From TrEMBL:
Protein name per its UniProtKB record: AraC family transcriptional regulator
Origin species: Streptosporangium nondiastaticum
Record's keyword terms, sorted: DNA-binding, Transcription, Transcription regulation
Pfam families assigned: DJ-1_PfpI, HTH_18
Record carries keyword DNA-binding: yes
Length: 333
């Protein structure tokens, strides 16, 4: 497992306030060292495709990047967090030198990532041709129209297509960044980082739940205690009825509220939590696969292997081999 170098490409020195969130997410996740979780942590480069002299921003904020586009060279991961609104609307072309730099990075084997409207840059560079990708639901129609060779999926929070990853807008960018940490350093490190950021380590569901309303209709505060309790008792054979009773709701009401809040069913939510617990135990303990399956609530080792292979493409034993003693997240039992 390795962190490596992350280069973030900023289109302008004058970054709109709305786009500062995605840039801030990248800098927060990859630019602040957490050596107690993984050492070394990521090496972050902020690379600007704008001019050498920053111009006054709309709120008195300007960005002076530490690197020009040459900073993308040699990076293990290249992230485009956003593009100007005029580029989304087709009123302005993306800088040719940026697109060429992105192509060179992709050709050299860098993992290419976009957050929100950053997908327009990867698409313009031809990196998304023939691939499944996503963006903020407000921009997916324009992305599909302007780049018909891209298979646009507007229903998901992010798409992991191996060496090319894209996310929906705003908070979904944080979901994808945590997913990258999970891929690089394991679930234990990603879970601990998510706790420090006070966000879920993994949000099931998709962005379709946010298309009609910006905030889910369900009362999240009423669900938080029972979901926290469920995470603390995953070794138990929990049912929808058990969780509904603990929440003081009927099973039908609980089902409806959880699905509205997370975009997934209670049983699917439980499965995601159980698999995350199994990942963490496999990484950080020497417990047997049988014991891991019991503590995560998946029952038998055969059931754990079946779900693990289906969701992660590897067996629990092969997954554990990626975390030898001394690796990030690994610890003795």
């Amino acid at each position: 497992m390795s962190a490596g170098t992350v280069a973030v490409a900023v289109i302008d020195d004058d970054v709109p306030m709305w786009d500062l969130y995605e840039l801030g997410v990248v800098c927060t996740v990859f630019g602040i060292p957490h050596h107690d979780l993984a050492d070394p942590w990521y090496d972050l480069r902020v690379c600007s495709a704008g001019g050498d002299v920053p111009q006054p921003g709309p709120f008195g904020l300007t960005l002076r990047a530490s690197h020009g586009l040459e900073g993308l060279e040699g990076a293990d991961t290249v992230i485009v967090p956003s593009v100007p609104e005029a580029c989304i609307e087709g009123e302005r072309e993306l800088p040719g030198e940026l697109l060429e730099a992105l192509r060179r990075a992709a050709d050299s084997g860098a993992r290419m990532v976009s957050l929100c409207a950053g997908a327009f840059a990867l698409a313009a560079a031809g990196i998304l041709d023939g691939r499944r990708a996503t963006a903020h639901w407000m921009h997916t129609e324009a992305l599909a129209r302007r780049h018909p060779r891209v298979r646009v999926d507007d229903s998901v929070l992010y798409v992991d297509d191996g060496d090319v990853l894209t996310s929906a807008g705003v908070t979904a960018g944080l979901d994808l960044c945590l997913h990258l940490v999970r891929r690089d350093l394991g679930a234990h490190v990603a879970n601990q980082l998510a706790r420090r950021l006070v966000v879920p380590a993994h949000r099931p569901g998709g962005q379709a739940q946010y298309v009609d309303v910006s905030v889910p209709e369900a009362d999240d505060d009423s669900l938080a205690p029972v979901l926290h309790w469920a995470r603390e008792h995953l070794d138990r054979p929990l049912s929808v009825e058990d969780l509904a009773a603990r929440a003081g709701m009927s099973s039908r009401t609980f089902f409806r509220r959880l699905q509205a809040a997370t975009g997934t069913t209670p049983l699917q939510w439980l499965l995601v939590q159980r698999l995350a617990r199994a990942q963490s135990l496999l990484e950080s303990t020497a417990l047997s696969v049988e014991r891991v399956s019991e503590l995560s609530g998946l029952g038998t080792s055969a059931n754990l292997r079946r779900h693990f292979t289906l969701h992660f493409g590897v067996t629990p034993t092969d997954y554990r081999r990626s975390f030898p003693p001394g690796a990030p997240g690994a610890a003795a039992a």
